[in-house]
Amino acid sequence: MIDVKKDTESALRDAAEVTAELVLNGYVEKWVEGAIFPSEMAFFLAKCMVEGVTTVVESGRQDGYSTEILGDWASRDGRRIISIDLEDDAARAAACRRRLSPWPIELIKGSAYEQFGRWTKRTPDGPVGFLADGPKGWPAISMMAAATTDRVRVVALHNLTIGSGERALFEQIGGKQAFYEHAIVAPGPRWTELRNREMNFASAADAQRSLDVSSLGVLSLDADRRGMFRGLWRPEFGLHQPAAVRTLWNLGLAVASTKLYGLSFRLLGR
Length: 270
Prior knowledge:
- This protein is an alpha/beta fold.
- It is built from 12 helices and 6 strands.
- It has a single domain (about 5-235), classed as Rossmann fold (3-Layer(aba) Sandwich), CATH 3.40.50.150.
- Strands 3-2-1-4-5-6 form a 6-stranded mixed β-sheet, sandwiched between helices.
């Protein structure tokens, strides 16, 4: 009998060696406070490789650290990256666009609540991955759940702190393996080197987040998990339940979805 769990762990370990090599090639020392850690990005990409993801839709690029890594990864195998950001700071957005100009990335300006579902529908055939680092928390989860289709294979959210309800939800759906310290149980040499270099650099930079416990949750969605995620209904969502957001998108009322999130926060504080 084939040990599926062992095969999956082996595939993830091998993929993590490939993506760790990519991140080690110039990205560890580019990390800045607030950005997704290098090892977290390598973990997300490894999950995407295992699931055969050909398109990643990213929400929230800020200075472009994670987006640049995505672009580098995509450029090697013809994958597609779509990155959405409000770009409310014009100077910062311009600098970010210059930084990302060498890479094959579609840079979209606008509200993720409006654009995420729209651009997910426009992705070409093939497995899709989501990466959200703005908005955060429950609004980001409801947005990604609303956009989830049968082609979505990987869903990731940053800043899932220990003790938070959002982290508990990710662990409920994907187990503790939603976080790399529990998923990569027998790391290879490149992953080990990545973690060591990251620890040294981020410690010297006085990183504010834990270097021992990751905060990027990454879910691999099989049919059962996809159905669970897509069908989420939580009181924490307030008015922006995924089914309601999805309905607005399907009716061509994407602008109204942004207003729904705002109304929910004003009326319910969430």
